[in-house]
Amino acid sequence: MTSAAVDRTPLLEVRNLCKYFGNVNALEDVSLRVNAGEVTCVLGDNGAGKSTLIKILSGVFAPDAGEVLFDGEPVALAGPRQARALGISTVFQDLATVPLMSIWRNFFLGSEPTRGVGPFRHLDVAEARRITREELRKMGIDVRDSNQTVGTLSGGERQAVAISRAVYFGARVLILDEPTSALGVKQSGIVLRYVLQARDRGVGVIFITHNPHHAHPVGDHFVLLNRGRVIGDHSKAEVTREQLVREMAGGAELEALAHELAGIVEP
Amino acid sequence: MTEATARAGTPPPATGGDERAASLSGVTRLLQRPELGALMGALFVFALFALTDSTSGHLWLQQTGIAAWSQQAAFFGIMAVPVGLLMIAGEFDLSTGVMTGVTAIVMGLLINNLGWNAWAAIPGTVVFAALIGLVNGLVVVGTKLPSFIVTLATFFILRGISVGGVLRINHGSTMLTLRNPNAPGISSARKIFGSSFAANSSLPSGYQSSILWFVGVTALATWVLSRTRFGNWIFAAGGDPNAARNVGVPVNRTKILLFVATAVSASLVGVIQFTAASSAVSEQGVGYEFYYIIAAVVGGCFLTGGYGSAIGAAIGACITGMAFEGVIYAGWDSSWDFTFLGVILLLAVVVNTFVYRRALRARR
Predict the structure, then answer these.
(1) Which of A110, A137, A151 sits opposite B248 (nearest CB)?
(2) What CATH number matches the domain at B37-196+205-356, 1.10.3470, 1.20.1500, 1.20.1740, 3.40.1000?
(3) What share of chain B is helix, strand, coil (3-state, %, to 5)?
């Protein structure tokens, strides 16, 4: 860990989180932190506890033990609304946008700008469309027609709409749930660039993924989860992509697998 | 610094998406309008009956014909529009038809049996309807059962009550007639709800005032749907309730309010019918719930929710009205209007599916 990271108060930090579902230890003694303007990647295979962690960070679940600190102060997240109010915004993989609605309607869904008074209060459509275009442009997307339905956008662009929306509405911590897992190589690259855009605007990003190849280029810190436990915690300087891949696959396990496969493939 | 972080320092160039955004031609955009198919259908049906009109003097194209189908359209449309909104929010209401009859009876009972002034009976009827709508909405949201089943139950409960209750109160008759033709307030209420306007030498009976209510309901619903926060929530509630909840949309409240609005619209039809006819019959309106749904679907509202328009549902109601009246003007056996409607419904669903694919055509 570099000294700079130690000195700063992390924007969001969790210490020794535990979560049990019956006999299953979904999370056991998990700690991680994210600073403003940095990306912390949470890496783990299926069943590692990533979803449970997201749900605790976004206020859906309460942890059974451990604490959540926001700006250095302990907080008890009572629900998703409170998390959002603090500035913790979660972009869920599939549940981020409504495909049949236009881009601007999606962008402002739930926080629509209005004008007029009393029964004549109505949507400020021109303003909503202007802001939508402007905010998406900051992310590097030029939508000529924000009346297009989100369904006509590519998977990467949809993620971008959700990310730029979260940033516009004051997200200080952005939690991205597997934003690249359903995407092709090129689209994944585009989304990774949006992650860096958000970071450069001072947002602390928690990037949850099972793909070390996506995590390594954008991450400042890497936390590896396996079966609910932290099995690795590195800053960028300490770790190469190859090490991340090895650790994620369980190091020695992977070598054994490679050996075994070699035996099968060779005639 | 790695290559990726260095690259992020400069604003990224716009992605390739923009040239393709420009390729969304005017035609495509027009095809994405939910009401386009309905409008073409309405013109087709109007032209069809203009050609097959067998009345002497070709009344279909005269004011007589227009007054006839627009009155029918109004009765369907006042309901089809809120039913369409409810459908966009992802819910059904099968109790709408019976509600138009039940509310007419409630108004009659309030005037006949409780001696209320008509201007007190009207809000009384509206409140009664709103309560039924509230129950529908609360049960659907609370039990998470399909609204199809919940409102089917409401339909049958109300149907039984409307027959059994009226038989009991009304001494064995299912027809409830206004006992005192000069009951207080009734003549002024009739002027507003159940009379006609623009009578002239070629159309002595004029146009029904229900047509104006139909236009008003359509305009209000269009404004709400396209220009208010609530309208945005209607689309989201039907399009993807989970995504909507994630961004703080009160999905349940939106749905409950729409059930109330639908029931209140039914009471408007009830009031119009009672003031116009000075009578109400048990089971009046039963079976009409399907016409409302047909009109909404023909008008481009998706059965699966998330897409549609109020104007589309209103045009759908016009098609339904024209189908009922046009068959008479063409001199066909009136049984054929069911077949006619069925064919139109099927065509509309095919067109809707095409629109849906266009709207969701992903460009990966």
Answers:
(1) A110
(2) 1.10.3470
(3) 70, 5, 25
The span from the CA of B266 to the CA of A166, in Å, is 41
User: Angle at CA A189, nearest 5°, toward A1 and B359?
Assistant: 135
Cβ contacts (< 8 Å) between A148 and chain B: which residues? Answer: 21, 24
Model ipTM value: 0.83
Q: Are strands A122-123 and B175-177 parallel, antiparallel or unpaired?
A: unpaired
| B175 secondary structure, DSSP code | E
Listed in sequence order, the residues at least 6 apart from B279 whose beta carbon sits closer than 8 Å to its beta carbon are B108, B175, B176, B177, B178
Tokens 């005192």 sit at which residue?
A: B180
d(CA A68, CA A72): 9
Contact residues for B51 (Cβ-Cβ < 8 A; gap 6+) = none
- CB of B258 within 8 A of CB of B90? no
> Cβ–Cβ of A157/B242 closer than 8 Å?
no
Average pLDDT, chain B: 88
Cβ neighbour number for residue B149 with a 10 Å cutoff: 14
Distance between CA atoms of B295 and B316, rounded to whole angstroms? Answer: 4
Quick check: B21 and A199 CB within 8 A? Answer: no
Nearest-by-Cβ selection for A143 from B21, B232, B249: B21
Q: What is the mean pLDDT of residues A218-227?
A: 91
* Candidate from A35-39, A60-64, B143-147 with smallest mean pLDDT: A60-64
CA quadruple B198, B201, B206, B207: dihedral sign: negative
Retrieve residue B65's tokens.
């014909």
| Spatial separation of the C-alpha atoms in residues B151 and B133, rounded to whole Å | 10
Taking CA–CA distances from B240, the nearest residue in chain A reads A98
Residue extents of the structural domains in chain B:
37-196+205-356
Q: Would the pLDDT of B323 be above 50? A: yes
The model's pTM: 0.85
Q: Which two tokens stand for residue B360?
A: 């969701």
Interaxial angle between packed helices B210-227 and B63-88, expressed in degrees from 0 to 180 and rounded to the nearest 10 = 30
